[in-house]
């Protein structure tokens, strides 16, 4: 009881401090504490929170502190001890740039301010942090890029910031193996791969952390040719709950190695490096094509016909719903596809078959035989922090009928328009991904043609709480209806969805039981925990 009182008082103090220094966060904190009308608030899907203690229990890394008997708010001397132990430095709220370092990409969780930030520069720094949080019974979260869709890299306790552990290097004599440090952002990985003339399965967003990307599977335009990014993981090093720094590969701790290939970040330890198999970077054709007419027919043909494209082809289809202002300006819904084609026996025109003649060429572009990394500049996505939620599932082309396509566009027309456009998207999977068995790695989602997602985006200063609630309600109903009509299954663990009911089965399917066994072996007391953490068997 005393611990819960301390937890509650600590959060109230943090709320008052945050509101004083950041007036725009008032609504966020009210929503987090269940004092606002929105049903889908802070770590949504759990309903309204009864109070501050309940909110804290759902924050990343908080279960350990809530259940342990230690103190939650360490004395100044403890922070001094941590600063001496972490060579990369420790930031406190009064330090310059504290807010910049702790701001997540999803501003929905931006009001969750850490008590301190440990900027780890080595595995020894990470080990010092693990020892300290256990001594202080302190909740914590681990972050590199800060792009967790559900805010799982935020915490009111210690934020273990990995971004100073950055870099990628070719391992001499290892036939193209590249070692990537645990805090490296995608942009740094890309630059090093370009220098080496190599590539991997990689994403488009250059500010995403390589660790979270790799641990949850990792999708990108190369995945149909080379497999998921996690399929290319040759070895990894991590600090486990007992403070050990261990290596896991096919011959050493193979069960942990298996779990790190799709088991999701934050479950088994703090990964300090990844050794990846790479491939030669060769010229590709890149494209961004748009259709503005016959949209339902175009989308249906794309989803069916592209499913049989060669493995050299990778794509992402966007159906974009305009923002409130864009709708006032009469901007219509559009269908577009972004992607690349490695050297292939088929041309783009042959791959697109029926839809090629309907492309709006005034809004489209094709660049042929471009050097690989120059082509990625055309495809790259640089994001800024905003508010959002994403829901995902996996589909087979054969299950996507005319009724389902019509329903998608009906739902698009019903979108409560916010200040930002939204989209429902189809990331093309299949190919090499489906040639790996669902239990060979922890990434279970094999045998599908498309990874479907529908987003809700908003900007809090310009969108009311009621409109946000309506948008999230629309998103849920859209998702449920389309999944039913297409027999869609599962959800992508790298698109964590805090409103997902049976997330355990959705993310991990038949691999959940084995993942729970690995968790029991390396973290039986659940030191590494958050709202959707794997629990030990």
Automatic annotation (TrEMBL):
Highest taxon above the source species: Bacteria
Ranges for domain FAD-binding PCMH-type: 110-281
Keyword Flavoprotein: yes
Cofactor(s) it depends on: FAD
Keywords assigned by UniProt, alphabetized: FAD, Flavoprotein, Oxidoreductase, Plasmid
A GO molecular function held by the record: FAD binding
Record-stated family: Belongs to the oxygen-dependent FAD-linked oxidoreductase family.
Name recorded for this polypeptide: FAD-linked oxidase
Organism: Azospirillum lipoferum (strain 4B)
